[in-house]
Predict the 3D structure of the following.
Amino acid sequence: MKVVVGLGSCGIAAGARKVYEELDHQVKNNNLDIDLEITGCVGMCHLEPIVDIYDEDNHLERYVKVSSDKILEIINKSIEKNQDNTYKISQVDEEALGKQVRIAIENCGVINPERLEEYLENGGYEALKKCLLEMTPEEIIGEIRDSGLRGRGGAGFPTWFKWNAAMVEKATPKFMVCNADEGDPGAFMDRSVLEGDPHRLLEGMAIGAYAMGAEEGIIYVRAEYPLAIKRLDIAIKQAREAGFLGKKILGSDFNFDVRIKAGAGAFVCGEETALIASLEGERGMPRLKPPFPAQKGYWNQPTNINNVETFANVPWIIRNGGEAFAAYGTERSKGTKLFALTGKIKKGGLVEVPMGMPIRDIIYGIGGGILNDKKFKAVQMGGPSGGCIPAELDATTVDYESLSKVGAIMGSGGMVVMDESTCMVEMARFFLDFTRKESCGKCIHCRLGTKRMLEILDRIVKGDGREGDIELLESLAVEVKDGSLCGLGQTAPNPVLSTIRFFRDEYEAHINDKKCPAHACKALITYEVVEENCIGCGMCKRSCPVDAISGAPKKIHEIDQEICIQCGKCYEVCKFDAIKID
Amino acid sequence: MGCCGAREQKEHFLDEAVDLTLIDGEINKYKEVKGSLITILQHAQEIYGYLPLSVLEHIANKTGIYSSQVFGVATFYTQFRLNPVGENLIMLCKGTACHVNGADKIEEVIIEELGINDGETTEDNLFTLNNVACLGCCSLSPVMMINGETYGSLTPQKTREILNQLKEESLLVREGN
């Protein structure tokens, strides 16, 4: 019997490590005939901790939301073939997994990321072998071109074009860099690949390095991802020992090695030239292009940078052919895309779907709909550089062209779902606050423009919005876009523009009527007692931190609006729906 | 720092007397490797828990990198801290998913319970609060990480319980010493 515990970061946070330790303890102490293994994230974060049990015939049963005190019971029942379905994965969740097409994360949640053998058993390093022994660099780039693979980090630039530009450069040494500095708040696609299938990244990088002629690879990974760094480190050592990295790889003339560089936390390092400055030990500030990194990158040498997901697609494309990859997706957006589905969603997690799938199919078909069955309002895509797509446009398909048509972007794949209780003005303020903090300060329009825009949004949500503020935001947005050197500044106003475009009425309600339609902005709401429901229990009175509530026992209570600080405590504690927000 | 802002900086940052030789091994290891300043600073923070001004000066002197550049890099990246942290470092996630699911409410509770704002340490040196951009556990939002342990699906009540428990545990450890 084999038992596999999912030990990705979210699994561990949900208690998977305790399940694993308990099981390990039981196996050792009671000499159980159990092969205990670990795996990465299968993507169903809402069901963590997840435990897979394979019986003697290699038949898989998946158990979800397992706790350390239940694990032994589950295993015993499984041994006895007892059909107890309490912890088994539901049919619906199983089907949700079936709606996905897994290419970049085909091994995540399946193999043990700390064992090279398991990667090899699943076709690992076959693509590299094929490239080194049977293909020329031109043929590899041709295959990637046929696949239609575009950069998965945000901008969607054709991967083959970048590789080709770096290949034709004569200067050496050349560098292959992987951007694993996933800085978009609300996205964890790269982390899941790094933790669940690190060899895949190394293989993808090695193939790209062979195609462009690089001998040194650098993975720039967030220091906030300690588990990813640990597993990458293990994978690099294993690959070196097995001869997949190092000198004369697989008997060819190709030399390539990889090292990890821990990033120190700066969103702007998603921009290629800023990332290079950071690799060189400087402040991560972008510079003018051209020259492009393909011509003058790391230490002024030809450099290619791709993100984790892009590399993770490469081995599959080489093994199955570019055409097979291009068979998925739309005319101009080929293949699949990973999304981190989060926010007000029932079944959040990591999903990989073919490009061109309507957003509603992802939210309802895979994500199970909106949390607490509230009303779906919008989905935010592309993080601080992206935009909101309102509920009425939920037929929009996820591909580069359709998303940019509605003012959002594919971005790296963050998909944050919002319901009726999310204030869109406040959301725009949240993103602006983020980009303002993360602006490197080089361009005046980005440095000061985002600050001015934030000040305006701040006053709007505080109820001090003035007539003309919306127009002022719109004109500042254009100037910040035009006056900024890099992607951060050029896209920072997007969340504001997109919310103004689709939710202008909310802005107007804040400014003109001093009301927040979502009841989210504190300064614009009042808490009032619903007299017919109040039984005078006194719970609200006791919980109020500023003594704004008065009333005798069993008599209707009253809130003094002059004293009330809108903390919402009374609303939370009232069991009789006797407090309303207006 | 050997520039006119030196006095002002010293007023802003606590600069304890620390053993500068602790970082010498790392400096010597990376001194000749160009582009290693961030790596050296990361090691220094691991050793001292933060980056004391004297250590920054020491790194500048030993590596030959301008102290303004060392200070520039140390203040640019969010990972680096110029002040020491308390025994329990609370990293409160303020990512998009956590924000949508009520991270602000959790922050209010922490401020109320501990009396510290983002970046501050309690007077008894038990807690430091740091708001971070994203911890990557979005499906458990709102989330905070304390001393490497992740606490998910937080509610105001749950947050209070966690803080109180940690406080008790830390005080017990102190008494034990």
Q: What stands out?
A: The longest strand of chain A covers residues 336-343.
